[in-house]
Amino acid sequence: MSDDRVPGPIDHESPEPDRPAQGDGTVPVQDAAADPSVGQGEPDRSDEPGGTSARRRPGVVVAAVVGALVGVVALLYLINLGTTSGEIERNTSIGGVQVGGLTPEEARTQLADHLGGDTYGASVTLQTASGPVEFVPQDNGLTYDVAATVAAAPLRAADPVSWVRSFFTERTVDAQVGIDDAAFTGWLTSTAAATDVAAVEGDVRLDGTTVVQVDPVVGSAIDVPAAAAALEQAWRAGPQAFQAATLPLVQSPVRAGAQATQAAADQLRAAVSAPLVLDAGGTTVERTAADIAAVTTVTPDAADGFTVAVDTATLRAPVTPQVEATQTAPADASVAIVADAPVITPSTDGRTVDWNATQAAMSGAVLAADPAARAVPVVYVSAAPALSTAQVQALGINEVIGEFTTGGFASNSGENIRVVAEKVNGAIVQPGATFSLNDFTGQRTSAEGYVPAAVIQEGRISSAVGGGISQFSTTLYNAGYFAGMGDVTHTPHSFYISRYPPGREATVYDGEIDMAFSNDYPTGVLIQTIWTPDDITVRLWGTKHVEVESVTGDRFDTTPPERVVIPYGESCSASGGTNGFSIVDTRIIRDLNGAEIRRENFTTVYNGQQNIVCAPAPARATPSTTAAPTTAAEVPPAAAGG
């Protein structure tokens, strides 16, 4: 047994640090005779107040008190050691049960009573994805080894330091358990199979007009390895920990949540809840719920939800003709000559269906929850005319700027002139534009109302559909000539016809010979035609910019007609023929102040009209000749013109 005295610390409590410490803890009183400081010239002051003896007296008292306390503690330690030897260290618990101060046998008894009863062996309620389950440890591979657990508890230590420390230290000893892995894991596996919930993806679709809705289910399953580790750890930690144990569950998320699935289902129900009505300005058309369902789709979207879409273009297709019948076409402004004065008819706007805007409104109405929104007004946009009133007014069609008249045509030629005059009447030539007679009228066939009439073919008078049109072309050419229009193209007849001014006339033929002029002024030109059975007049209306004078020179280079004899039996129209000649026409263009702007010279070379002789019949009297017709039009060989 060690000495009850506490060594060492007493020296550090001494009020006189120069006094040497003693190993046994006592403080010796040094003899004055042994003190070298005494008798070295210092007087003895032991009897004086504050002398050496007086200073040493408190240290002796403290040392005595400390020594006494140490002795008491040592005595208690020895007594406790003798009475508790073999016991489990104080402040020790096993599985929540205090066993400190008990002998191992007592601890085994207490643990057997405590842990073998309801507290430690009781079942625990564990939560699964399908609800709570009861787990009975002993029935499923978890047991408790009392003897091994008590043997693991520390016994009372004999050394004084551990003895002192035991008053301030709490010790917890894990229970020594037995685990039947097959039974324990088997219970977890079978429980997982019975309670795990598989994930179900939400779905929404239409079956006809019925909404089919599958609500999503988040999957949840027992993590068997993690659950085994958690329950084993709780079992070892004791009843409290085991009763608080939980099963770790692994979640299997779904793409679309319940809220997104419900929202899509609500939209589908709204879509097929009632017919959709389109109101086209008072004309209504309807699409049924079945029609809507047939063009409605549901697709997953990027936001973990669903997109409900209605193909409104297909939905409205069957009723498109009815809706578009409510459209109105725009009307261009026009100008006509009434009572020898230009009168403008204002333009009017039309309206057309704006299908993009209308279909957007249809989509919103179909998916809206409000039944009152099922009627959709058709959206219209204004359709502007190609030629507005302001544009016509800006053309400056105010006065006659060029006019010409010809006559003397045969009735069938006159009919063709009437048809073409009606087509051209009212035509407007915009500033900077060119007017082409062939382009404007198109092909001149019997389908357009033209009839056979006189033409010039290979230098002779013949007949073809559209004959006589050259007279209208010549009249229009001269009106443009005196209006100052630019000469784009014109072709004189091959021989001179006396009803036209020499050097100022123009023949035409479909697709090959054209008459065209350009409007080189900043104002527009309106063509007015006036037809009678006797003559044709063409007037050009606009704003006068120039004065035009025509100077026709004398004829020169006269040539005799060619004599042609037509064999007997062939078609023949006898003609005495005319001389050919050349002539120069000069157009002088001046501004409105009389200043000359330019001169244009046109030289025309006319062939002589053939002298056609019809050969007499053999052995018959001399055949009479017929006068050549005075009205003719000319075309290229084997082609009709006028």
UniProtKB/TrEMBL annotation:
Entry annotated with the keyword Plastid: no
Record has Transmembrane helix as a keyword: yes
Biased composition (Basic and acidic residues): 1-21
Segments forming domain YoaR-like putative peptidoglycan binding: 304-369
Positions of transmembrane segments: 60-79
A Pfam family that the UniProt record links to this protein: VanW
UniProt KW keywords: Membrane, Transmembrane, Transmembrane helix
Segments of this protein annotated with the region Disordered: 1-55, 621-642
PANTHER family the UniProt entry points to: EXPORTED PROTEIN (PTHR35788:SF1), EXPORTED PROTEIN-RELATED (PTHR35788)
Protein name: VanW family protein
Organism encoding this protein: Nakamurella flavida
